[in-house]
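Researcher: Here's a chain I'd like modeled. Treat it as a single chain, no partners, no ligands.
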Amino acid sequence: MEVLYAGLTAFLVGTGVYLLLSRAILRVVLGLAFVSYGVNLAILATGGLRLDAPPLLSVEGPYVDPLPQALILTAIVIGFGTTALLLTLAVRTHHATGKDDVAAFEDELQRDAVDEGQVADPEHPTNPELPADVDADAPILAPSGGRS
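Model: Modeled as a single isolated chain. Structure tokens:
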């Protein structure tokens, strides 16, 4: 039984990480859900995997720890809420931009801000124009005021 849980946990976490590395926002949301399901199985396995032992402390004989099961129930409820929120944001973002690619969101938002002349914080622009004597491709070095 432990080998089955370990294999299923590894499969869920591996699939979740693979989907998280994708650029499509729906795959990122599903990957986050898969990772949380894999972690829930790992937590369940730490509480003990015995078929003849109920999670009741009032019963005589062997029992499994009920705390991991309570934590998993809480994590499932929080996970459903988080997944619903992320899916709502994904649908809203898809309607607003017409794209499902995560990298395209930044390009689209920057292009809109430049076209409209708007910035998020007018007092601190994110891309101020550089003076003519500064090379834009040169690396920016931090001032040497710290310890050596």
